[in-house]
Amino acid sequence: MFTRTMVRTKVLQTLFAYYKDGEKTPLTARKELLKSYADTYDLYVMLLDFVNAMTDYAEQQIEQAEQRAKITHTLYVPNRRFVKNLFAKQIFENRNIRKRVDEEHLSWDAGMSAVAAVYKQLQEQDFYKEYMALREWGYEQDKAVWREIYLKLLFENQALTDALEEMEIALDKTDWADNQDPMLLAALNTVRSFRSVTAYTKDLSPMFDNEEEAAFGEQLLQYALDGHEQFEKLINKNLINWEADRIAYMDRIILEQALAEITHFEDIPLQVSLNEYIELAKEYSGEKSYLFVNGILNEILRKMKRDGTLIKATMLKEEEKAPTTEEESPLTTEEESPLSETEEEKK
């Protein structure tokens, strides 16, 4: 479930906090990285449990309407199709969701504003009106309406983002709002995997696909910490027309982490690593930082290639290359790329 792109981001955030604090230890940094994994996984579970939260809220709305009808002596015949939804029942009864919610003391209490907002939005949706008006329906229709809710109402939903920010504080979690859409996608994939015969013991998606992927982030963090002084000297040595103390704090951390990956993970193609850290610079640093990061990395890699110290896989297979524009390519400079041979080498 966790992609390497997400892991790189979490390592970067951990390194940023580590160096900013100045008193943290590598062990503390590792614990914080692992906590960020667990927090994001909790978000995934909570976005599945949103089904339960909104079903409960819908039931409360019906009960309140019934009470108002009694007081005003008004005829009210509720349509309980949504609150009796068979897929929602599966989510409520899933042992692994309930276990995680209970063990981590997770709750939508601080996020009920989003539950109410999404339910209000739902009432206006044609797909919901059609579902509630069906004469015949069953499990597939019950699951389909929830699939539509995830697809059409939860992605990039500002009310949900605001609520997740509140829940971060209430539940002592980190980066829930930032990870909203990728974890929604993971939750949606889990929703799609349910069947009418799915048992209450159904497993959820694991954090990582295998042990190697699980170890990647911890190893990257350790290599970046261990090589800090070496990478710092290497960066300073290759600055051109730039003072070391003028480098943006985040740019330096991105460069150090990039060098840690390039020098220690031979199985990751160089082009992939470069592209990833150019994107991190675009996302987390200054407007033109990606150009600075690109230039410094190219200068360092050019010298490493010349010295024979660049042992990392340097090229993607032809079929794996993704086209990039001249502006977006992290290898675009006026000088030669470290990935290509010089004319002298070709001779």
Structure description:
The chain has 15 helices and no strands. It is mostly helical and 347 residues long. The protein is elongated. The relative contact order is 0.11. Mean pLDDT is 88; it is low at 313-347.
Helix content: 55-70%
Strand content: under 5%
Order of helices and strands: HHHHHHHHHHHHHHH
Q: Class by helix and strand content?
A: mainly alpha
Q: Count every beta strand, where a strand is a DSSP E run of 2 or more residues.
A: 0
Poorly predicted runs are 313-347
Main sheet attributes: strand count, strand direction, barrel closure: none
Total count of helical runs of at least 4 residues = 15
Multimer state: single chain
Radius of gyration: 25 Å
Euclidean distance between termini CA atoms: 47 Å
Average of per-residue pLDDT values: 88
| Shape label | elongated
Features:
0% strand, mainly alpha, 347 residues, 15 helices, single chain, disordered C terminus
How is this structure best summarized?
The chain is mainly α. It has helices spanning 4-21, 26-72, 86-93, 95-103, 112-123, 126-132, 139-154, 158-171, 180-193, 211-226, 228-237, 249-264, 270-284, 289-307, 343-346.
What's the helix and strand layout?
Elements: H1 4-21, H2 26-72, H3 86-93, H4 95-103, H5 112-123, H6 126-132, H7 139-154, H8 158-171, H9 180-193, H10 211-226, H11 228-237, H12 249-264, H13 270-284, H14 289-307, H15 343-346
Helix pairs in contact: 1-2, 1-10, 1-12, 2-3, 2-5, 2-9, 2-10, 5-8, 7-9, 10-12, 11-12, 12-13, 12-14, 13-14
